[in-house]
């Protein structure tokens, strides 16, 4: 609704929706329900109260339509002109309540009709309108009107219009709406009125209803007549205006049956044009408008167009003009400022490469002037401005009332993506896989970006964990080596002990106990290491809780109504975190006390230490007494030293292994998460394939070959095995077979697992075909594996494993019902029509197309026109065109007319005018500069029999 739209929308000169009630009566009405003001002051006060009621009922326009009387209209008109906001500031012109002067007529047909004049119709001519209808004005001072009489010379609606058209100052400044309510003595579609109705259709493009269109649901036959589908009543549909017939002093009915109507200027011609394009300009329920749109483009200075500052319509802006007047430049400046990547058409000639052309345009027309391009956008009601500097290419972004901030190009591309196509680009999309993919992905870009963000996050965590996994594997191998060494050393030491002779039984027993005491000493040392580590980790966890608490607070910009509840939540969180920290402190303190000198753990371990020390002293004494075995004892001492060192190392390794956790399990979980994300992405694209096929009216059949595009993976694999001596055809054959595999993604996962096993195989390990069954099945021999093994590093394998398989979209064209051919086999015009049909059916970001008619077959333009009507409620359209049908019958809401600054001088251009087709100067420009302009207007009228 107008009252809910952002002011920035009102700044362009195009058409916008206004919620209007075109049958509103005043206290002068004979059937008025309530007091009747009589004095001047009372009438002024009533008009102000009416204005307040109109605002409360969210009306943007009314027609004051008393029976054969204009007396109260000036009061309402003046009240609207005098309106101020809550701060006493006058309302902006485009935000004022629009007040049309109107008359409810009682005709000899017999029926009633509403005559609506331009909103700025001269007040001193209103009585002359009545006289043109052969009716003398009533006494303006009277409190009420007399009983309604039938207008003379009004036996047919064409006769009434003919009388009005005799007045040059009136012709073209009115519109007549007959009453077409399904039942009642006032209606023109009563039984047996077929000829009168068909007669009226020669001059009328619309009618009004007493109430809403819902009343037609009970009268389907009448609806058929109004839709032009009953030949007995004529074959011309008419537009319908819902009206409230408000005539109560409490304004309870005001706006109860309103109609949303589009216009740029509140004139009768605007209402006529809206009626001629009722599908696009008239709505009986609140209409949909795009929630993301470009509102303005500003170029500080350019070589050809100088300074450019143009407003754009939120729905459909058409840029017209002679060839070479700057239409394409305006689109290119917007695309460049928003970082839109112009796609290559596949042409090798740089002269027709749109990317090269855009670079030349910027370098030639903006860079020499150090120009700045600003694009203003509205995203869900929030204004954004993107500013880009021609020399540096630097981007700045302003959101809402914030200051401009320098941002990276990708920020702009992701936040404010547009869908744009250069000249002849639509008809070249089919030959480029990347463009087909972009075409498929763009409508669900946000969803795909979210999946990709989670994919990148998971990849990052997997990469981090893979380093841990490599270390875990290394430590595990080192532990195995340590255990084997300790086992060997322990056996050697025990053999030396057993070889000592001449010892007493007691000494022999003491030597036999040496290994057990050493194991106990090792265990005690490991326990102490664990306890020390727990103390450090407990303190680190306490610090994490403290940091978390510091991050939880109520932001100063939080809404006032939420601050109290947010404060309670923050208090609860702080309390919970504090209690957890206290509990951790208690745990840490308890542990510290236990391990401190004289603590329970220290005391118990101290007792063990003393026993071990005593044993070692006795053991040493035994060795000293065994002088006959000096050499063996030295060897034994060396072995025992090595055992102690190896045991200490094993303890550290086991501690490190414990700290590393379960990285293998984490690796498997991350791999599974990546598979799930790949599946989620594929499912989103498959769903979009179905939606795209439906959006194209089944002209396109889109499907998805999941995981069939191995281009990037193949390139990475080739780089990985470079220098191994592996033949190139081996690689080609491998990926050719993968592409035809029934489940290529699963097979590739198996290949990756086998490559990792090959990489992890110890140098002395045996490499067999059983180690890599999938690779063997796909043609890799043991010799091939031996060649590539030295080339597979953990980093290279990880990089290869994280390279995604790309889903391959497949497009087909429906050449006839039920028959599909490869999309590339369709003609350029067929391809472009199908793709444009799809684009105009999708929701999304602004759609910019430069001269779409160059891609279309002439007979398909009208098909596209109908799609444009529907599309501009879902997404903003900005088209540069030479085809008048796309502009006129496509019902452009705003037309920007490009031309040369000076006639005959083609060195400088400008936007000479802007407006809508209900404005004479814009209609003149269309018929002058556009191909088939006059014919397009004639087609628009012939559609309704004019």
Note down, in words, how this protein is organized:
With 946 residues, the protein is α/β, with parallel strands linked by helices. The chain folds into 4 domains: 16-283, TIM Barrel (Alpha-Beta Barrel); 292-418 and 845-942, 3-Layer(aba) Sandwich (Rossmann fold); 453-661, no CATH class; 666-809, no CATH class. It is 47% helix and 16% strand. The chain has 30 helices and 24 strands. The chain has a 7-stranded mixed beta sheet, sandwiched between helices. Strands 11-10-13-14-15-16 form a 6-stranded antiparallel beta sheet. β13 and β14 (382-389) form a beta hairpin. α13 (445-498) packs antiparallel against α18 (630-660) and α26 (828-839) runs parallel beside α27 (861-871). It is elongated. The relative contact order is 0.09.
Summarize the structure.
With 946 residues, the protein is α/β, with parallel strands linked by helices. It contains 30 helices and 24 strands.
Q: Beta-sheet strand percentage?
A: 15-25%
CATH third-tier fold name of the largest domain? TIM Barrel
Please identify, by name, the CATH architecture of the largest domain. Alpha-Beta Barrel
Number of domains: 4
Span of the ends, CA to CA: 32 Å
Shape: elongated
Q: Supply the number of helical segments.
A: 30
Count the beta strands.
Answer: 24
Mean pLDDT: 88
Q: Largest beta sheet: what is the strand line-up?
A: 5-4-3-2-1-8-9
For the biggest sheet, the summary is: 7 strands, mixed
Q: What is the name of the CATH class of the largest domain?
A: Alpha Beta
Q: What is the helix content?
A: 40-55%
What structural class should be given to the helix and strand makeup?
Answer: alpha/beta
Enumerate the spans where pLDDT stays under 50 for 5 or more consecutive residues.
1-9, 345-351
CA-based gyration radius: 42 Å
């Amino acid at each position: 609704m107008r009252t809910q739209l952002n002011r920035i929308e009102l700044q362009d000169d195009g058409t916008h929706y206004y919620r209007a009630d075109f049958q509103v009566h005043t206290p002068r009405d004979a059937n008025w329900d309530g007091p009747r003001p009589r004095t001047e002051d009372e009438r002024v006060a009533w008009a102000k109260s009416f204005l307040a009621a109109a605002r409360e009922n969210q009306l943007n326009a009314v027609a004051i339509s008393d029976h054969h009387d204009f007396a109260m209209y000036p009061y309402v008109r003046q009240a609207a002109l005098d309106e101020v906001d809550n701060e006493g500031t006058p309302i902006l012109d485009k935000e004022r309540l629009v007040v049309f002067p109107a008359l409810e007529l009682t005709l000899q047909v017999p029926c009633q009709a509403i005559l609506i004049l331009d909103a700025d119709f001269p007040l001193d001519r209103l009585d002359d309108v009545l006289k043109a209808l052969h009716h003398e004005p009533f006494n303006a001072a009277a409190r009420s009107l007399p009983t309604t009489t039938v207008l003379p010379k009004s036996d047919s609606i064409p006769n009434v219009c003919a009388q009005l058209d005799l007045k040059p100052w009136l012709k073209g400044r009115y519109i007549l709406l007959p009453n077409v309510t399904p039942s009642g003595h006032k209606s023109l579609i009563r039984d047996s009125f077929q000829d009168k109705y068909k007669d009226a259709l020669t001059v009328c493009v619309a009618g009004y209803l007493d109430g809403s269109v819902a009343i037609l649901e009970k009268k389907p036959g009448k609806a058929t007549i109004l839709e032009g589908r009953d030949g007995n009543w004529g074959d011309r549909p008419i537009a319908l205006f819902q009206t409230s017939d408000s005539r109560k002093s409490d304004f309870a009915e005001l706006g109860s049956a309103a109609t949303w109507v589009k216009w740029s200027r509140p004139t009768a011609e605007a209402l006529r044009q809206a009626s001629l394009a009722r599908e696009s300009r008239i709505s009986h329920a609140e209409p949909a408008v795009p929630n993301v749109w470009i509102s303005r483009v500003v170029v500080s200075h350019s070589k050809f167009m100088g300074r450019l500052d143009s407003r754009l319509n939120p729905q459909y802006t058409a840029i017209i003009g002679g060839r070479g007047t700057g239409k394409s430049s305006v689109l290119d400046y917007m695309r460049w400022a928003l970082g839109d990547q112009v796609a290559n058409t596949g042409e090798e000639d740089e002269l027709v490469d749109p990317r090269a052309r855009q670079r030349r345009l910027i370098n030639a027309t903006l860079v020499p002037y150090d120009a700045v391009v600003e694009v203003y956008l509205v995203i869900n009601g929030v204004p954004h401005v993107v500013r880009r500097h021609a020399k540096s290419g630097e981007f700045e972004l302003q959101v809402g009332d914030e200051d401009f901030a320098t941002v990276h190009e990708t920020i702009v591309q992701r936040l404010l993506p547009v869908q744009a196509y250069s000249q002849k680009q639509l008809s070249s999309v089919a030959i480029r896989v990347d463009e087909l993919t972009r075409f498929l992905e763009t409508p669900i870009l946000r969803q795909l970006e979210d999946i990709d963000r989670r994919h990148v996050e998971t990849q990052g965590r997997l990469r981090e964990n893979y380093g841990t996994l490599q270390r875990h594997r290394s430590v595990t191998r080192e532990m195995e080596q340590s255990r084997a060494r300790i086992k060997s050393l322990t056996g050697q030491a025990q053999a030396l002990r057993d070889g000592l002779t001449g010892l007493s039984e007691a000494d022999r027993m003491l030597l036999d106990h040496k290994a057990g005491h050493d194991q106990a000493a090792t265990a005690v040392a490991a326990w102490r290491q664990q306890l020390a580590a727990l103390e450090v980790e407990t303190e680190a966890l306490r610090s994490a809780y403290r940091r978390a608490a510091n991050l939880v607070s109520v932001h100063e910009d939080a809404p006032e109504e939420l601050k109290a509840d947010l404060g309670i939540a923050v208090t609860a969180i702080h309390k919970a975190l504090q209690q957890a920290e206290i509990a951790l402190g208690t745990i840490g303190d308890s542990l510290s006390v236990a391990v401190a000198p004289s603590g329970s753990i220290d005391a118990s371990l101290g007792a063990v230490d003393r026993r071990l020390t005593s044993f070692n002293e006795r053991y040493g004494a035994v060795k000293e007494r065994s002088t006959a075995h000096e050499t063996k004892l030295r060897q034994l001492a060396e072995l025992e030293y090595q055992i102690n060192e190896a045991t200490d190392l094993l303890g550290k390794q086991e501690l490190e292994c414990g700290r590393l956790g379960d990285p293998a399990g984490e690796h498997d979980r991350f791999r599974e998460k990546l598979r799930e994300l790949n599946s989620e992405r594929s499912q989103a694209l498959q769903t979009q394939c179905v939606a795209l096929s439906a959006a194209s009216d089944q002209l396109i059949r889109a499907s998805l070959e999941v995981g069939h595009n191995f281009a990037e993976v193949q390139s990475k694999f080739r780089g990985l095995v470079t220098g191994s001596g592996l033949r190139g055809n081996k690689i080609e054959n491998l990926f050719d077979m993968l592409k035809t595999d029934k489940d290529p993604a699963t097979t590739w996962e198996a290949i990756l697992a086998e490559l990792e096993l090959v990489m992890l195989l110890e140098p002395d390990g045996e490499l067999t075909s059983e180690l890599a069954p999938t690779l063997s099945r796909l043609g890799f021999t043991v010799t091939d594996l031996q060649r590539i093994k030295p080339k597979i590093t953990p980093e290279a394998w990880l990089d290869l494993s994280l390279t995604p398989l790309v889903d391959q979209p497949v497009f087909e064209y429906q050449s006839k019902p039920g028959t599909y051919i490869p999309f590339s086999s369709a003609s350029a015009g067929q391809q472009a029509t199908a793709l444009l049909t799809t684009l105009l059916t999708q929701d999304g970001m602004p759609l910019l197309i430069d001269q779409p008619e160059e891609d279309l077959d002439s007979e398909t333009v009208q098909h596209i026109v109908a799609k444009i009507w529907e599309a501009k409620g879902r997404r903003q359209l900005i088209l540069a065109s030479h085809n008048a049908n796309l502009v006129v019958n496509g019902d452009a809401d705003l037309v920007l007319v490009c031309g040369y600054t000076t006639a005959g001088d083609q060195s400088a251009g400008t936007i000479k005018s802007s407006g809508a087709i209900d404005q004479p100067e814009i209609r003149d420009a269309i018929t002058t500069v556009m191909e088939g302009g006059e014919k397009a207007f004639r087609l628009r009228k012939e559609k309704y029999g004019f």
